[in-house]
Specification:
The chain contains three helices and seven strands. The longest helix has 16 residues. The radius of gyration is 14 Å and the shape is globular. It has a seven-stranded mixed sheet. By secondary structure, the protein is of the alpha/beta class.
Length: 134
């Protein structure tokens, strides 16, 4: 467990919950048969059934990944491609700035010839989002 990663994850989850979203930490996403991903924070369209651990991708509004040194490739390239292909409308990637502040790269789903991908919509400090939500 890396303290920075855990703190950033919980700050993002708390921010989203403060906005009335159904945000959950370590949410399980069913992409397809036998293909399951766990994201750091997931926002479901509706409150989940308490006994269900994994949810179909179509039930997610937003997926958040907090980047660690050993997850850079997966969080920057692999997972966004999978989530976009699954049709999840929004993807946030959280990275650590030089001063330790979490920076959020917000991406929106766009449809292109041959499929879907994420386009960067905004880059913002987590602390700025927290102040905006007060």
């Amino acid at each position: 467990m890396r303290a920075w990663h855990s703190d950033a994850e919980f700050r993002v989850m708390n921010l989203l919950r403060s906005q009335g979203m159904n945000a959950y930490h370590e949410a399980g996403i069913v992409i397809g048969p036998g293909e399951i991903y766990d994201c750091d924070v997931g926002v479901l369209r509706d409150p989940p059934a308490p006994q269900v651990a994994y949810h179909p991708a179509r039930e997610f509004e937003l997926v958040v990944e907090v980047v660690s040194p050993d997850s850079r490739a997966a969080d920057r390239v692999n997972k966004p491609a999978v989530y976009a292909d699954a049709g999840i409308p929004e993807y946030w990637r959280v990275e650590e700035a030089d001063d330790g502040e979490p920076v959020i790269y917000q991406h929106k789903l766009v449809h292109v010839a041959g499929g879907a991908r994420y386009a960067e919509a905004r880059v913002v400090l987590l602390s700025t989002l927290e102040k905006e939500s007060l």
